[in-house]
């Protein structure tokens, strides 16, 4: 443990440390020499554009994409125009900015996605320099052209090109420049010799950094901090000026005593840094400068690139990948030699405890006497988060856990979540994954984004495991990963995917399971719908019965018109007919309604559904008839069924019209008789009823006449029809009018045991005694037979 | 204003023990499932710290009532309950608003409206959504489009697949399942079924044997087997409670639900409709019970709501009897109860009196239960003795026995002419079609035309749906195989004994439900004996075996019954359940049945679910 501080270097009050993240897995013959390099922050991927060994007209540069540990993810010869700048978007897409201002976008695996142009002016004047930058609005691109003009795009996903005003006196490229985001505006800060300007949308303002040493004739390099809050300027006199990005305050100025313009300069801060500091890189030298006059110097033995991070600087070289950062105060407190901080004592106590030494108790007592045990635990937990080596993490966490035993109500949350975080971090830092995130970066970027990054890298099983481990809600976690996976798998396997999902799942990826099948078919359908053009989409669906029916359900609720197109595509005339019928009921205007029904008729005919076509024609005929009568006679028939219409006509004495409908619609006689009978009874038109009964032989017999009259409480009229009822129904008819005697008579006549019993059940034992006896006798004879 | 109080949503017995005790009595303790569901609900509620109001998708209140009563919610700081409705939420002084909803897009729009109007008022509330039974990407997408996804703190799903409905009965309470599966080929509910069965196996052990008949059954079995493969390794080490599972498609037996159920419970459902274990009855008959004095003073106008399940001793005894045996059963019970009350005259010693008194509450409950059921039976008797009921039943039985199924039926004609309720007509016409293996084109068209002219042309869509599901169909082959099926499976028993049944046919006074016959034959002598008939019914029949972990093989005791879970995909009727219970109780049956279904249905609710009513302008 003693050697933990071995790689610490003091700078003023603070310490800096440089730790190795990876030995790079790539094998580059000449290291990073003659390479255009872009490495994404947050431990992102690295892109290299290597110039051909022998410059000849046929040789092409090679574009290669690697993980932070140097694992190759893509590699292909560059066949487009000359590239000036590479950069990464926040979504891990690679931007290749060409001389002519064309920006080509590739995914992590080198698949071309799309391209856009930075404007016509660039085409003519060529681009001199370009920078890729990140802001809350997304990833942006800024360029300066041969005409010394700047063009900005703040968000490449919502491309709006802004041409900035001219800079007075500027010819060719500025000596150095940077993009700033201030007051929600993106600006360019540039130096032309010793002059400094801020360019915004409308103006070019000369500015002076407060207290910049007067020896300088030219500002040769500048750097803006990760948060856009701080600015560093490097002058040809070897002075490094540090201040706020708004140029209002100066933080410090250091004479580096190196006058060569640096190759790269980046801020090296961390949230809650003890001092501002900047890392400057020359060919063989790496220098850290802060507030004090001292600097830290490292020799560089290979061509390297600095990558600014939220809490430090990563140095990527041909063989190594390192992290340079200010040692966080929690680590300083614990590991600084002879530190008496609570955390340091606790660590010591635990060490002794492991050795079964009684000194453990002494240390513990000391902490407890000062009642700083809680603080000690907190420090150990925090420091564990900053350590890269799992062994050191474990040591610190064990000490924290040990300390916790002596505290009665220490909240378990921080400890538990740190353990979880570290487990995740160690997993993604693993060489095979190659995302060297620090705890601070991880917290800043959030789990969701980390999951996204893993998904972009197609590391689905790991992503799912992390989601499960962190118990991320299904929809943010596992489901989301599966969705991405499904989309990706789909693109690779084509349309059979929807049905083949099961086999793929169990075959290729055992951590995935198909319980998601149905719901993912659903999401696949939505996904496809948005991604494909409609014709292709429908054609795709056609072969997928399950997906098709799901999509139909969706349309039924959401997109009626799409539903129609879908039926059209399938030549499903029956469903199209139904569709028009449904639509017709939503239509208020009769004409429109009729025309929809006509369309339905046409479709039904095409579907060879003769019945439906005819019925719909009938419906149209009825509607027209109703409208005519409504107009002529002021009835309100529209919308009634045929039966209801007839009933309305019959009760309002439109017998002629009723007759006409009856004939036109070929209403069966039986039903028409029922209808007329009830209508007449309802309006007490007994005379008409009698006439009607005599008009011809009733197709429904005469029992209904009896019953309908009784229903209208007219037993007198009912009686008239009893005699006409067929013998089988006589008993029923007599009973209907309450004539027990008659019913008994009829039943006995017919010698039907059942009917006699029916009548018997209606007799009361007190009032109908004679009848009862008679019936009982008749029944016994009937049963003997 | 939809501001409803809690009690109107979840009118549940206040005594918790009573609520769930009946679930534990059966052969399989279904209370375990209920407890698992309750635990999950509590966990979700505790995720939203502080006071809460629940906004209910009204459809869910019924099923939820079977899982948790208001007291449970109250224990977890649920202070208010509302019904989901557009516009602004009613005022409530709570920290959390939780929406309990089905994953339906139209409901998402309402939620968005609620949330946006709350946001406008800057109320410092947390919003959450609990999707039942599954969350849906489409819905979340919709919420995102509406711009409210970000305002929702917790979005979760509450997997309520199989709800314990009674001691031997599980239901998914999914109304649309039949329609979705057989009309719209939407298999979502089958997926839920498979998931539900996996949950069940996690709690009650792997079911070693799976039998099935029908397309959907095959599909569910496939999904189950696949899920099991994928979960391999995380197998439960539970001794299997179920010996076998039988999956049955509703469409292999379209006839049974069309017939009028003739058991007591079946008739209550036919006449008044049982929803989520509750029935609403006309109040008049129940008025007199409370206080004799108040009779006629003010008759209650609110329907009387009663819970029906086997927790009620008397109901458990009579629910599955043929209605014609109810009178005798009730009067026997009346005698027993009054005899028990008479006991008080014999109670001489203090000890005896004490014992008598201790039994009083139980006796009083029994007496009031008896009074209730006497009233219900009277209500139903009024209907069953009516001529209309008799005529209808006569026609049904003619169809089921194959009388004149190939002709236009005069009774149906007359009913149409008198514009009887459409569903009644549809039930009869469909029944005729099913019993004739389709109707002659001419007859079918005649019926359809009669229906359209009488009830309106808009019902063409409904008729179309019925044809798609096979309930109505034109005869394609000249051979009607229904008589063969009827004879082989003995679907019609001339001498059905309603009082002391010796065969399942008592539940329809003569007709033995096809689905249950299949179940019965499977148990003994096995389906091999009826291969021919099985081939006539739609869809494949199959048998699958699931490997049990070593050491979990059940050693059956001599004479120990097998336990079979019968799952009806697309719904089951109370009469069918009664028939299965009858089989369970048969002395030499050898099998006890637990019943599961997507929904409890009767002919009316079933046909209704297949109807399309275009909205009139």
TrEMBL record, chain A:
**Membrane topology of this protein:** Peripheral membrane protein
> What keywords does the record list, in alphabetical order?
Coiled coil, Endosome, Lysosome, Membrane, Protein transport, Transport
- GO CC annotation: CORVET complex; HOPS complex; late endosome membrane; lysosomal membrane
| GO-annotated molecular function | actin binding
Report the superkingdom from the record. Eukaryota
Q: Where is the Vps16 C-terminal domain?
A: 523-779
State the InterPro entries in the record.
Answer: VPS16 (IPR016534), Vps16_C (IPR006925), Vps16_C_sf (IPR038132), Vps16_N (IPR006926)
Task: Specify the Vps16 N-terminal domain's residue ranges.
Answer: 5-416
Q: What GO terms in the biological process aspect are recorded for it? A: endosomal transport; intracellular protein transport; vacuole fusion, non-autophagic
Matching Pfam families, A to Z? Vps16_C (PF04840), Vps16_N (PF04841)
Spell out the coiled coil positions from the record.
Answer: 587-635
Q: Which Gene3D superfamilies match?
A: Vps16, C-terminal region
Tell me where it resides: Late endosome membrane; Lysosome membrane
Principal place where this protein is found? Answer: membrane
- Quaternary structure (record): Core component of at least two putative endosomal tethering complexes, the homotypic fusion and vacuole protein sorting (HOPS) complex and the class C core vacuole/endosome tethering (CORVET) complex. Their common core is composed of the class C Vps proteins VPS11, VPS16, VPS18 and VPS33A, which in HOPS further associates with VPS39 and VPS41 and in CORVET with VPS8 and TGFBRAP1. Interacts with RAB5C. Interacts with STX17, MON1B. Associates with adapter protein complex 3 (AP-3) and clathrin:AP-3 complexes.
Q: What the protein does?
A: Plays a role in vesicle-mediated protein trafficking to lysosomal compartments including the endocytic membrane transport and autophagic pathways. Believed to act as a core component of the putative HOPS and CORVET endosomal tethering complexes.
Q: Which family does it belong to?
A: Belongs to the VPS16 family.
Q: What is this protein called?
A: Vacuolar protein sorting-associated protein 16 homolog
Organism, as annotated:
Hucho hucho
From TrEMBL, chain B:
Family per record: Belongs to the STXBP/unc-18/SEC1 family.
List localization entries.
Answer: Cytoplasmic vesicle, Autophagosome; Cytoplasmic vesicle, Clathrin-coated vesicle; Early endosome; Late endosome membrane
Keywords of the record: Cytoplasmic vesicle, Endosome, Lysosome, Membrane, Protein transport, Transport
Q: What membrane topology was assigned to this protein in its record?
A: Peripheral membrane protein
Q: What is this protein called?
A: Vacuolar protein sorting-associated protein 33A
Q: What is the lineage of its organism?
A: Eukaryota, Metazoa, Chordata, Craniata, Vertebrata
Q: What does this protein do?
A: Plays a role in vesicle-mediated protein trafficking to lysosomal compartments including the endocytic membrane transport and autophagic pathways. Believed to act as a core component of the putative HOPS and CORVET endosomal tethering complexes which are proposed to be involved in the Rab5-to-Rab7 endosome conversion probably implicating MON1A/B, and via binding SNAREs and SNARE complexes to mediate tethering and docking events during SNARE-mediated membrane fusion.
GO CC entries: autophagosome; clathrin-coated vesicle; early endosome; late endosome membrane; lysosomal membrane
Q: Does the keyword Protein transport apply?
A: yes
Q: Which GO terms describe its biological process?
A: protein transport; vesicle-mediated transport
One matching Pfam family, short form?
Sec1
| Transport is among the record's keywords | yes
User: Which organism does this sequence originate in?
Assistant: Hucho hucho (huchen)
